[in-house]
């Protein structure tokens, strides 16, 4: 037993948190005085979530962990590893993970490995890989791992501001998972680049070289995809002898803005086209690509900024995009770029936009990108037997929590409800709030100006930063549970006390 | 094969870098006008290394990785994972790991997992655990992992300044290692504490609550040690039915200053004493403890600041300290606190202070502590067969590098030479250099004022920070190798070209 790895390690449960305030991208176009459609059609964004000055990276992660544990009835004693991926650094030394350990106080369980992991939007993926490896390693002691990603993405006023967002996602990791990380199938691309980085430690805003950023993302995508396909061709039996997009049922991407994701699907089709792999696509999908013959001698080199080629491939791959990727962009479009949680928000969006029967047995490809740069492509397999509630082993129902695809997806269904429950604020108010964050986010001896009026029940919020920069938080109470102890549709949850510290 | 883990995963090779400038702690006592012996006897420190303004966390890590690869003749293509543990944050988003990827450019290998991991001085241990788990996981592809820890530890002028230091350590990780991480034997203690943290992002200096810091360290030690012994009692056959200090041949600690380490040995003896485990010590060791009968009813509660008890246990455990721990404090005493590399500097110091025959087959206990807080106790086993060069498989000698205890320790022997080659600077000069760092460490459009006159050959140094905060580095050339292509005793190395970017 000791030298054998547990099997089917992956995601057992997920929880998503996004801010309760948002701004409309249409109104932001007017407010910013840019050409109509620049943010909405040009970038593919509809709405953008943002935080007031009473939320920070700690409060975001406290909220999502507390909700995941409550909703899935997991005991804090049963967690053996917890790590956080973030680039929202408010302390150069203390980890967000150490702040989250407050949630474990009551359980008395402090034997919980893992700290913070960081490289721009890639930190969450790094944490996920580490957690999976821990479960597969000799250090595993049978307990669950928790992976948390969270970020507040804000930009200086100007062109990039509309590509902000915020949120946090927690994932419970263990064996026999409904979403299995496919073993030995992973391709990374890591290089030195100053495309997007945060060297001004006094500011929440990054320094961005927009053109280099797109170039880095696409180059990483090309490299990861080709390397992933090479590895997958050896590992996975396919109808053709090689692996290509036809072997991936859903393809998810880190999404700084939705239009880049659509271009990424086109780019993958270009990769297949250049390598003659599109010949293995289904008849229908091949038919869509018939107008590409003018590019039969296309190469990947120097094609990143070739507009006619890009346009042609985006058009030709539209059906593939609609089927394999678009359902994953719900949160990316309505909340914006969450940074580390972005890719996992795409996973959550896909899961609540697709029926369980459709999902079961499928392969989900994921491309994670963090500027600087760090990128990986990997895949999830939706396990055959975890799709339907009736296959739950009845002997275990009253024992430990059982994690099926059904339970995983059920836990995410309130996303659509909560998106509608958010408060829309005008661009003027949004701008004022960002100005307030700008002036106050590094202050000691400070109490947030915002009340907790707008935030969702169950949300942790910052109450004070003392003269030594020590931060305290409180939690907005959840409504009382209904008679059955179940969550109600309006976001009320079965958790009754305020956990304040 | 696929679901079976590789065996004896651990440290194959190590490389240590520390600054070439240091200040004498005796002179610092005079300069600071404190009572004689406060830093030297009171804290147990002799000298302190420090960096000029032309070294930063990137340059420290570039140097140690380049040297490890050269000295051990490892090809950059053979690295599949690289991660960095640090709390010296100079960018909130871009990882140090991404900077290190420049070293891989020539090899064309960019499929290298891992980013940065951070929680005060614990980041390196987190990176080590992640690397070992990766090798043991299904994601492993047969290549080596590289773990890098580095930090520049500086404090505001005053009481704490003398507890600074700087350095970096790289470790090559893989199976069949001379230093095996004992599988399934690990106890962690993670909690929320504001004992030492860095909330002022504009400053290199931490905020420190000295008393809480000692209390947190000792509480973490108590918890990790007891939990480790509980786990070890189940896993390891010992003469007595339980596990205690007599089952650990060498005991290493994170060392903010050497006196705390000596007190930690005493604290472990107190733990054993309270639980009656000292009865399993050797006759000689038991005899040393005979004066402790006045504390026969001692408990761990409220004893952290009990001075008479502490003094008695420090005295009674002196022989144990001399034998099991003191040989590990060479670098901690002469370079100071390196933060993340501190614990691994203790390992390197032990290895070059003890004969290979003595080391072989022994268990080395390690206690890693990072404020905030994150702590773990784990152990290394020096493998029976890797101790002597004659057991190297001759068939492999001309093939891949072979890593034995002999080769590992040989690579570290220049530490003593380099400690002597350093330049001693007067406290006035040291203070001026820290003031210069204070004013310049966050600047854009800046070139360091220091020349590379003092730094060791083979060291990377910062040459410029441009107007967009982008940093460039150059490497001080190594002397030409001697006729045999070997490193010479004076620090000359078999690497001839200047690698500048």
Automatic annotation (TrEMBL), chains A, B:
It holds the Pfam family HMG_CoA_synt_C. GO terms for molecular function: hydroxymethylglutaryl-CoA synthase activity. PROSITE patterns: HMG_COA_SYNTHASE. GO terms for biological process: acetyl-CoA metabolic process; cholesterol biosynthetic process; erythrocyte development; farnesyl diphosphate biosynthetic process, mevalonate pathway. Residues 484-501 have a biased composition (Polar residues). The active site is at residues 87, 121, 254. Residues 475-501 are annotated as: Disordered. InterPro entries: HMG_CoA_synt_AS (IPR000590), HMG_CoA_synt_C_dom (IPR013746), HMG_CoA_synth_N (IPR013528), HMG_CoA_synthase_euk (IPR010122), Thiolase-like (IPR016039). Keywords: Cholesterol biosynthesis, Cholesterol metabolism, Lipid biosynthesis, Lipid metabolism, Steroid biosynthesis, Steroid metabolism, Sterol biosynthesis, Sterol metabolism, Transferase. CoA binds at residues 159, 213, 259, 263. It catalyses: acetoacetyl-CoA + acetyl-CoA + H2O = (3S)-3-hydroxy-3-methylglutaryl-CoA + CoA + H(+). Pathway: Metabolic intermediate biosynthesis; (R)-mevalonate biosynthesis; (R)-mevalonate from acetyl-CoA: step 2/3. Its EC number is 2.3.3.10. It is an enzyme of class 2 (transferase). The keyword Lipid biosynthesis applies. Residues 5-178 form the Hydroxymethylglutaryl-coenzyme A synthase N-terminal domain. Residues 179-476 form the Hydroxymethylglutaryl-coenzyme A synthase C-terminal domain. It comes from the Eukaryota. Belongs to the thiolase-like superfamily. HMG-CoA synthase family. Catalyzes the condensation of acetyl-CoA with acetoacetyl-CoA to form HMG-CoA. This is Hydroxymethylglutaryl-CoA synthase. It comes from Ciona intestinalis (Transparent sea squirt). The lineage of its organism: Eukaryota, Metazoa, Chordata, Tunicata, Ascidiacea.
């Amino acid at each position: 037993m000791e030298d054998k790895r547990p099997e089917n390690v992956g995601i057992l449960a997920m929880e998503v948190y996004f801010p309760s305030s948002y701004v409309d991208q249409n109104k932001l176009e007017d407010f910013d005085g840019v050409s109509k459609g620049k943010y909405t059609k040009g970038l593919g964004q509809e709405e953008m979530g943002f935080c007031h000055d009473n939320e920070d990276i700690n409060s975001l992660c406290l909220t999502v962990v507390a909700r995941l544990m409550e909703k899935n009835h997991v005991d804090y004693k049963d967690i053996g590893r917890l790590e956080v991926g973030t680039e929202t650094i408010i302390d150069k030394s203390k980890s967000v993970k150490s702040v989250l350990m407050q949630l474990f106080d009551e359980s008395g369980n402090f034997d919980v490995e893992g700290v913070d992991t960081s490289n721009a939007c890639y930190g969450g993926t790094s944490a996920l890989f580490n957690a999976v490896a821990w479960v597969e390693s000799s250090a595993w002691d049978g307990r669950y791992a928790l992976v948390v990603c969270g970020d507040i993405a804000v930009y200086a006023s100007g062109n990039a501001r509309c590509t902000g967002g915020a949120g946090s996602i927690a994932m419970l990791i263990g064996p026999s998972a409904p979403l299995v990380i496919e073993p030995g199938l992973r391709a990374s691309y890591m290089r030195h680049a100053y495309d997007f980085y945060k060297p001004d430690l006094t500011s929440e805003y990054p320094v961005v070289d927009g053109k280099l950023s797109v170039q880095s993302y696409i180059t990483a995508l090309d490299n990861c995809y080709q390397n992933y396909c090479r590895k997958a061709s050896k590992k996975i039996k396919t109808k053709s002898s090689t692996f290509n997009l036809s072997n991936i049922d859903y393809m998810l991407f880190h999404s700084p803005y939705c239009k880049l994701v659509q271009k990424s699907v086109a780019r993958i089709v270009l990769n297949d086209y250049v390598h003659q792999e599109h010949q293995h696509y289904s008849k229908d999908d091949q038919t869509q690509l018939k107008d590409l013959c003018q590019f039969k001698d296309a190469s990947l080199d120097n094609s990143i900024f070739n507009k006619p080629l890009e346009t042609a491939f985006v058009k030709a791959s539209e059906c593939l995009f609609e089927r394999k990727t678009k359902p994953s962009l719900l949160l990316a479009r309505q909340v914006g770029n969450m940074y580390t949680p972005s890719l996992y928000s795409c996973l959550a969006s896909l899961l609540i936009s697709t029926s369980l029967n459709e999902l079961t047995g499928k392969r989900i490809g994921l491309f994670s990108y963090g500027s600087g740069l760090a990128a990986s492509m990997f895949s999830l397999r939706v396990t055959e037997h975890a799709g339907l509630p009736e296959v739950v082993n009845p002997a275990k129902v009253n024992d430990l929590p059982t994690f099926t695809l059904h339970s995983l997806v059920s836990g995410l269904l309130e996303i659509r409800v909560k998106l509608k429950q958010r408060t829309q604020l005008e661009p003027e108010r949004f701008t004022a709030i960002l100005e307030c964050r700008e002036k106050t986010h590094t202050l000691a001896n400070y109490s947030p100006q915002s009340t907790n009026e707008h935030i969702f029940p169950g949300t942790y919020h910052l109450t004070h930063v003392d003269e030594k920069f020590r931060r305290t938080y409180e939690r907005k109470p959840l409504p009382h549970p209904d008679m059955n102890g179940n969550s109600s549709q309006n976001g009320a949850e079965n958790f009754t006390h305020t956990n304040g510290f």
